Amino acid sequence: MSDMRIGGLASGMDTDQMIKDLMKAERLPLDKMEQKKTYMEWQRDDYRDINKQLFEFSNSIFDGVMKQATYTQKSVNVSDPNAISVKNINSTSDFSGSIEVHRMATAATMFGSGQITDPDDPQKAAGMSTKLGDLFGIGLDEEKSITVKAVNKDGILEEKTLTFSMDTTFQGMINKINSETGVSMFYDPHEKKMAVTAKNTGNNENGPEIEFSGDLVSHLKLDDNNNMAVTNGHGSYGLNADITYNGLRTKRTSNTFSINGFELTLKNQTTSPVTFSSSPDTEKILEKIVKFVDDYNKLIEKVNGELGEKKYRDFQPLTASQKEAMEEKEIELWEEKAKSGTLRNDSVLSSALNKMRTDLYSPISGGTSETNQLAQIGIKTSSNYLERGKLIIDENKLKEAISKDPNAIYELFAKDGGTTSEKGLARRLRETISTTIDSIEKKAGKSTSTNTTFTLGRNLDSIQDQMDRFEDRLVQIEDRYWRQFTAMEKAIQKANSQSMYLMQQFSM
């Protein structure tokens, strides 16, 4: 139990206020530690904000100017778009040609030789929710299977065997066949017959394109294969597309196929050749390069701003007691200046900026293209020194370079190599950014880091330990003040009592 505190009863002094005032003076070192801790937390958060922007810029580079797909975007002109369509897939070179469509590829089909009807009323179509056992007169506890072979994209049969409980509905059986095999099955309630189409077009040179076998085939009133169905008058063969491409008569199993990195889709039969040609999609490629330049300029503007931001040493972080005495707007204006300059002249960021500039302006060695510097494609540094390395684009020159050889620009940005000088500009930048991110993380960690794993975190733990020890010391000091004032009050009270006693004795 602590000693009882007596607050000015005998002396008439405001002991409580006097001790508070004394403790304010005692707390000054603690307030400074708290301000130092707050400033380090701001610094840590500012470092992490820079790292976030570096990470986002690195990803933007990877998804933009470093991707080959950026430079393979092409504008394709087709003389008859209703007959064919042409799309670039991965061709880095321009392409052109002509194609005549003599016949479209078609899928094999077949439909039932007999009707499947309601077991209770042969005049009605079978119900889609009817169980297979009831529909086919089989015990519900039995299982039956069907094996489906269907032609794939290469014109080869692929096989799948499915087993059904007779408790399965008619619709459930059809859904499973459609989802797991190479055919699409359909029951027509008007004709009361099954219809089947191969999912892939084209001809199987070795036989039918659709084959069925198993317990359920006879119940579905289907022939064993589409060739047999054709013979019986209820089916069709799968046919290959018949085309003449650049003068060569040839066939394809599908109406969509690739040649030399671009994709052709046949839409209609033609009576004369359809021509097509490609050229770089200058606008789309330009858009990606402009985004890279804009993102780079925003990043260096942010980093330069942090490096040169003024530090207001007279504006220290506010303590909790200081904030209590201020208006919200005053706090906001104060902290705006107190937070300024946390990364001023930071060596890691200064080094990163210098390295990034070197990455961009040093020519690439050992490439297959004559394009080895940004200036050759219309990108150069601003002549305004205040803009600190901002990139400026000459759009006309850049468009000309894109039209001439987009692959050369891809190499300029993305070329790999054994040394830094042999690597593309964007590849160099990403390596510099990665090194910078690692250095900043050693200083400031990331949101998932524990304080012991980075420098500022360890400093924060250390100052918190100092603050905790100082708090304990303040408690002891406050107790000492109270003991001293209480002793004084007791002494005054005793003296007052003695004085009153003597006065009483003299008055007798």
TrEMBL record:
Alphabetical list of InterPro entries matching this protein: FliD, FliD_C, FliD_N
Q: Name one GO biological process term.
A: bacterial-type flagellum-dependent cell motility
> Can you list the GO cellular component terms from the UniProt entry?
bacterial-type flagellum filament cap; bacterial-type flagellum hook; extracellular region
Main subcellular location: secreted
* Localization (cell): Secreted; Bacterial flagellum
In this chain the Flagellar hook-associated protein 2 C-terminal domain maps to 240-497
- Per UniProt, residues of the Flagellar hook-associated protein 2 N-terminal domain are 11-108
- Which keywords fit this entry according to its UniProt record? Bacterial flagellum, Cell projection, Cilium, Coiled coil, Flagellum, Secreted
Pfam families this protein is in? FliD_C, FliD_N
Q: Does the entry feature the keyword DNA-binding, yes or no?
A: no
Whether Coiled coil counts among this entry's keywords is yes
Question: In terms of domain of life, where is this protein from?
Answer: Bacteria
NCBIfam families from the entry? PRK07737.1
* SUBUNIT field: Homopentamer.
Give the protein's biological function: Required for morphogenesis and for the elongation of the flagellar filament by facilitating polymerization of the flagellin monomers at the tip of growing filament. Forms a capping structure, which prevents flagellin subunits (transported through the central channel of the flagellum) from leaking out without polymerization at the distal end.
Q: What is this protein called?
A: Flagellar hook-associated protein 2
Q: What is the lineage of its organism?
A: Bacteria, Bacillati, Bacillota, Bacilli, Bacillales
